[in-house]
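Exercise: predict the fold of this chain.
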Amino acid sequence: MTAREFVKILLAKECITLKELAKIATENSDKKYTLDGISHKMRLGTLRFDDAEYFAKLLGYKIEITKIQ
């Protein structure tokens, strides 16, 4: 799964738009997030893992890694 797919799944689960995510992320950070900036990174495949993890945390999710038995 790509970071793009991960973020799109989060948005669908929470019924919010990318624009709303950018607004929430900017309000809760000292970094400015824009719709165009996030969208551009997602299209190019350059969205960083720490950004995807931050978005998940903002929306009430956490990323867990578990070893396959």
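Check your answer against the key: The mean pLDDT is 93.
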